[in-house]
Amino acid sequence: MKRELNLLFNALLFYTRFPVPVKVGFSEEILSKSFRYFPLAGALAGGVGALVYYLCCLILPHSLAIASAIIVIILLTGAMHEDGLSDFLDGFGGGRSREDILRIMKESTIGVYGVLGVVSILFIKYLALNSLPKDLIITTLIGAHSVSRLSPIMLVNSSTYVRERLSKASHTRLKTDKKTIAIATIIASAPLLLFNWKFSAVYILLSALLFIVFRRYLNKRLGGFTGDTLGALQQLNEVLFYLVLIASIKI
User: Fold this and answer.
1) What letter does residue 167 receive in the DSSP assignment?
2) N-term to C-term CA, the chain
3) Inter-residue contact 214 to 96 (CB < 8 Å)
4) Cβ(104)–Cβ(95) below 8 Å
């Protein structure tokens, strides 16, 4: 139990801004195994966002409550995944060779591709959530932020980390064990039980297709993945969740 709590606290420390009550043991191996609680960290961030949405709805218009929830979730996750998406778009948008892409993604500045990408995806999230029925917002925020974090874990285990120098994502060089994959899959998939099974089935199918195409593209251009590409994949899966849910309601 103590070991699992340490893994959970590592996940919260690395992937969110949630404070943890104790000092945690740290190593690349521990951080790699803490991936099992990556979807739970997402669900907690989504849950806080859902709470903010509910409270804001008591005194603010629905649209402002949605915007507040999105902002709070970004703050809770340190904009880690949005940063990954912007670096991914800058690198692949502006780089021709493998070396160019890796160099651009490593730069601290943000380019036009990154700006347009982050602004666009935030706008899509806002419009998508704002178009959903109010009684679905809370479960949607929790579900989307949980299940969207499973694909990055699968990418780590089915591709190769391509950076040679140490970075904040260096622990992804290590493949996670079967127990970690199993726990992460259960946690990430559990919120789907709250939704219509047809929506869940279609989302899983399209998410798997997105994963295959994305991984193939990365392998072709880079020969593997980086930490930024993991963040980009999470963002794409989150938006996919919203869009498929909206389509399932309208059909």
Assistant:
1) -
2) 45
3) no
4) yes
How long, in residues, is the chain? 251
What is the Cα–Cα distance from 156 to 53, expressed in whole angstroms? 33
Mention every residue, 6+ apart, whose C-beta is less than 8 A from residue 226: 102, 105, 161, 162, 163, 169
Residue 140: count of CB within 10 angstroms of its CB: 24
Q: Which domain holds residue 125?
A: 2-250
Instruction: Give the pLDDT mean for 219-228.
Output: 93
Compute the average pLDDT of residues 180-197: 95
**Is 134 within 8 Å of 65 (Cβ atoms)?**
no
Contact 141, 50 (CB under 8 A): yes
Residue 160 tokens read as 């190769």
Tell me which residue of 82, 83, 99 sits closest to 163, measured CA to CA.
Answer: 99
- The pair of three-digit structure tokens given for residue 131, joined into one six-digit string: 């178009």
**What is the residue-averaged pLDDT of the chain?**
92
pLDDT of residue 146: 97
Task: Tell me the β-bridge partners of 161.
Answer: 225
Tokens for 203?
């989302």
Domain tally, the chain: 1
> CA 80, 81, 85 angle in degrees (round to 5)?
120
pTM of the model: 0.94
Confidence class of residue 1 from pLDDT cuts 50, 70 and 90? Answer: confident
Work out the average pLDDT over 141-154.
97
**Could you give the CA distance from residue 153 to residue 245 in angstroms, rounded to a whole number?**
23
Give whole-number Cα distances, 145 to 50, 92, 241, in Å. 11, 25, 9
Residue 210 contacts by C-beta under 8 Å, 6 or more apart in sequence?
151, 233, 236, 237, 240
